[in-house]
Write a structure and sequence with these properties.
With about 280 residues, the protein is an alpha/beta fold. The chain is about 45% helix and about 15% strand. It has a domain of about 190 residues: Aminopeptidase (3-Layer(aba) Sandwich). Bound molecules: zinc ion.
Length: about 280
């Protein structure tokens, strides 16, 4: 189920639990007769939220030749932004627009505030073994997902939390827990499909990948309960070849094009599921 239709479903379910919202509103909102119905509005362009990792006082991984992760991921995020905007099908926002520090939870909060349809975090890795190279894609692990759901449903974290368009503060404990679990389960599945799509697209575009490329971890930036999210490690700055490639503009553009292909494929698959 897509994030959008899940939101609608959850909104409908929550409506059922509220007194006074029912038959009367349903009648009021009934569609107008066919003869005067306006043409269906064009679909809203999807909002892709790009998250270039690190920034400011946090340089991220450091390359053997001194390349800083925060700089290369920003360059690639900018290329990807250009690629996505060029087709006219997306709106794009970045979690940071300059070399500044933004806390991890703040990045997630910003994506939620603007109701992003997709969250893509961009990083470059480092490893003690300089021979390790290639890209990898992460989604939130099962354990971290359960932990986040429990934390979000807990009363003290509920004050400002909005899941699937509903304020958790207004909901009884069991309803809040059920809403979070439901939203999160669907989102985790969407995120995994997204990650697999990215792996396939990168591979098709000749990007070198780590073995067992789609991995799961407890990254804080992947914890939004209702936005499909993946974190891409674009290569290893600890590997001299990867470091060089990540700084070459041609390669940055190639990565951005492959990622744009992933985003296209993700939304095409979501639309096909909705129609089926
Ligand atoms: Zn990083």
């Amino acid at each position: 189920m897509s994030a959008l239709s899940r939101r609608d479903l959850l909104a409908a379910l929550s409506g059922l639990t509220v007194f006074g919202v029912g038959a009367a509103d349903a009648w009021a909102n009934a569609p107008a007769p066919k003869s005067v119905r306006k043409p269906a509005p064009l679909p809203r362009p999807k909002l892709v939220f790009l998250d270039p990792g690190h920034g400011g006082k946090d340089p991220g991984a450091q390359g053997v030749r001194g390349t800083q992760e925060k700089a290369v991921v920003m360059a690639i995020a900018r290329e990807l932004q250009k690629e996505l905007l060029a087709g006219g099908r997306y709106r794009v926002l970045l979690s940071r627009n300059t070399d500044n520090f933004v806390a991890l939870r703040e990045r997630v909060a910003r994506a939620q505030t603007v109701k992003a349809d997709l969250f893509l975090s961009l990083h470059a890795d480092a490893h003690p073994d300089p021979d390790v190279r290639g890209a990898s894609v992460y989604t939130l692990s099962e354990q971290a997902t359960d932990r986040e759901a429990a934390a979000l449903a807990a009363r003290e974290n509920r004050a400002d939390a909005v899941v699937a368009g509903m304020r958790l503060a207004d909901k009884p404990d069991n309803v809040a827990a059920a809403l979070v679990a439901m939203a999160q389960r669907g989102t985790v599945n969407d995120s995994r499909r997204l990650a697999d799509t990215i792996v396939q697209t990168l591979s098709r575009n000749g990007v070198r990948l780590l073995p067992r490329t789609h991995r799961q971890a407890g990254f804080a930036v992947l914890t939004s309960p209702d936005i499909p999210a993946a974190l891409v490690e674009l290569g290893y700055l600890s590997n001299p070849q990867d470091e060089k490639l990540l700084t070459v503009r041609q390669h940055q553009i190639a990565l951005a094009r492959a990622l744009r292909g992933s985003v296209d494929a993700h939304f095409a698959a979501a639309a096909a599921t909705r129609k089926a």
